[in-house]
Amino acid sequence: MLAESHHGPRSAIIYKYTDRDGVEKILSNRTLRFARPSEMNDPFDVYIEDLLGMDLEEVQERAIDSLCDVLTKNPQEFADRCEVPLESAEASARILRNASDEHRAEIRRYLKSVDIAALSPEYKALRGEQPALRDIVVNHLRNCAIFCASRTPSNLLMWAHYAEKHQGAVLGFHPDVARDSMLTQIVPVAYSDQRPSLLDDSNLLARPTPELAAAANRKLYLTKSSEWSYEQELRLFIPGDLKAGQNATFKHFYATELVEVYLGCRMSGEIRSRVTESARRLNAEVRVFSVSLTKRKYALDMSPVA
């Protein structure tokens, strides 16, 4: 379940806030706009310039701390991860457990001081390739296309910010599961005070896999600052869909997916009529609502339009 309609129980309706020009284009072209990440209005959103989060030297230091902790608490897990005999792991674990705090700190300092690049050709090569790998990931994400929607049609801030100060509209779409609509792939955004990165404490010891990379990318484009949580945002992400010079691309939706239209309280009568007619041409069953200000409350009333 993705959304909660104001006039009934929970449903799978997703809501797109748009200005007057946008609503007429969406209805006349039957398309939704997918934008490049750089088009987002929040500069922190899908911020890819430092998405690696930590460089390899920091990863080495933090990984050593993590490995020592794993070794001390679970030699079997250490042996499996590092592909060493269990007997060796257990012997090393005993040394660490029996060592004084000062000795353990000395061991960690020694391990962190070792020049892994000098000992490991693979690590040296990885460190040399890091800028190129970073560029590949950045370029891939920079060319992705993102469609943003919301779980609610009645947020006052979003009406002001995205629906042209209440002169625009909100369109409600019900994803067509039977026809495998692209809208069925839309997912909720997570809100956090910490910016995501591809390298963090959760994957320091994990072997790199396509699944891990995909999970890291998803975390990047599905995480926003907690200050935006009021948006109750949903996102649909298409990787590598934009060509050089393109700021956006447009994708068709099924006409019957348009199930609700909310006309802003400041929308003119002429535009209201055009939008209503266009919506009903797409889907004769669409429900159209006129939005007005609630008396004595900071809220919106939604009245059906005959």
Describe this structure in words.
By secondary structure, the protein is an alpha+beta fold. The protein folds into two domains: 3-36 and 144-304, no CATH class; 56-139. 40% of the residues lie in helices and 20% in strands. It has ten helices and 14 strands. The chain has helices spanning 20-29, 56-73, 75-82, 86-98, 101-113, 116-119, 121-142, 156-162, 210-221, 269-282; strands spanning 3-4, 10-11, 14-18, 31-35, 145-150, 169-173, 187-188, 190-192, 223-225, 233-238, 248-252, 258-263, 287-293, 300-304. The strands form five sheets. The protein has a five-stranded mixed sheet, sandwiched between helices. Strands 5-10-7 form a three-stranded antiparallel sheet, with no helix packed on it. Strand 12 (258-263), helix 10 (269-282) and strand 13 (287-293) form a beta-alpha-beta unit. Helix 1 packs parallel to helix 10 (269-282), helix 2 (56-73) crosses helix 3 (75-82) and helix 2 packs across helix 4. It is elongated. Mean pLDDT is 81; it is low at 1-11.
